[in-house]
Amino acid sequence: KMAAGEAAGRYRSTMSKSKDPSGLLISVIRTLSTSDDVEDRETEKGRLEEAYEKCDRDLDELIVQHYTELTTAIRTYQSITERITNSRNKIKQVKENLLSCKMLLHCKRDELRKLWIEGIEHKHVLNLLDEIENIKQVPQKLEQCMASKHYLNATDMLVSAVDSLEGPLLQVEGLSDLRLELHSKKMNMHLVLIDELHRHLYIKSTNRVGQRNKEKGRISSLVKDASPVPLMDVTNLSTPRKFLETSQFSTPGSSSMRETSLLEIKEDMELDPEENSTVFMGILIKGLAKLKKIPETVKAIQERLEQELKQIVKRSTTQVADNGYQRGENLSQENQPR
């Protein structure tokens, strides 16, 4: 009984000090476990039931007093609960829609990538078709350029066409005949350029000197000057060596001809390509360089040097003899045997 009394005292003190339900429950359990007498337990049980009944009465009184506020709170709570439920459903629907949009965007992205790749392929095919169309016209254009002696343009066109046919268009079987034809022309193109170079080096240059002396002789005969024919002046004659030397070692006060370098030479399609022999020889050398035939050109010049010089001597001798014979005829007609 003393133990039960102490437990009841602890219970009351706990209830008065603490309003935490868990603390009360723990206190009751401790009291029941420490009491050995059944009567004490029944007493404790009665106290608890009385306390619960008092709580129910107090709760009923509070509900009666605050019925309106409680009803409003319950309705508000229900409304909030419904709104939260609706919001959750809407969010769920939005998530589903977003997932669906994401899948559709993935599909569209793949489709767009496929269309983009197809566009690039079609553009490449169109470029190849344009290139094939241009290359098919190369033989005709090449023939026209060769006929008009615009060799630099012809060389550029031929080299570019052969590079395309042996590069991006190598797998096009329909161009095999054209490929062989242009390749053969490229292999023999340098022979034509070398012949033109020799013609200007040895024939055109000496023809200019001879023509100049013919004009001088004609003028002297018109003024009845019996002085001997002047010697050929070849010091001012333009040659590729002089051309390169003056272009490399030009001074600020030099002429425009001397300021031109071989790399800056361009071919004018409107003018006669042989009008300026020095520029024409520069064009020939540039074309041979693009054909990568400079070693063959040097070899051909070395092999034909002696023969060409002999031909110059032969032509000059014949020309001097003809001029002398004509001058003698003119003097004899004027009764001047001297």
UniProtKB/TrEMBL annotation:
InterPro entries: Sec8/EXOC4 (IPR039682), Sec8_exocyst_N (IPR007191), Sec8_M (IPR048630). One of its GO terms (cellular component) is synapse. Residues 273-323 form the Exocyst complex component Sec8 middle helical bundle domain. Residues 329-338 have a biased composition (Polar residues). Residues 45-97 form a coiled coil. Keywords: Coiled coil, Exocytosis, Protein transport, Transport. Residues 46-144 form the Exocyst complex component Sec8 N-terminal domain. Residues 1-21, 316-338 are annotated as: Disordered. It comes from the Eukaryota. One of its GO terms (biological process) is Golgi to plasma membrane transport. Pfam families: Sec8_C, Sec8_N. Belongs to the SEC8 family. Component of the exocyst complex involved in the docking of exocytic vesicles with fusion sites on the plasma membrane. This is Exocyst complex component Sec8. It comes from Charadrius vociferus (Killdeer).
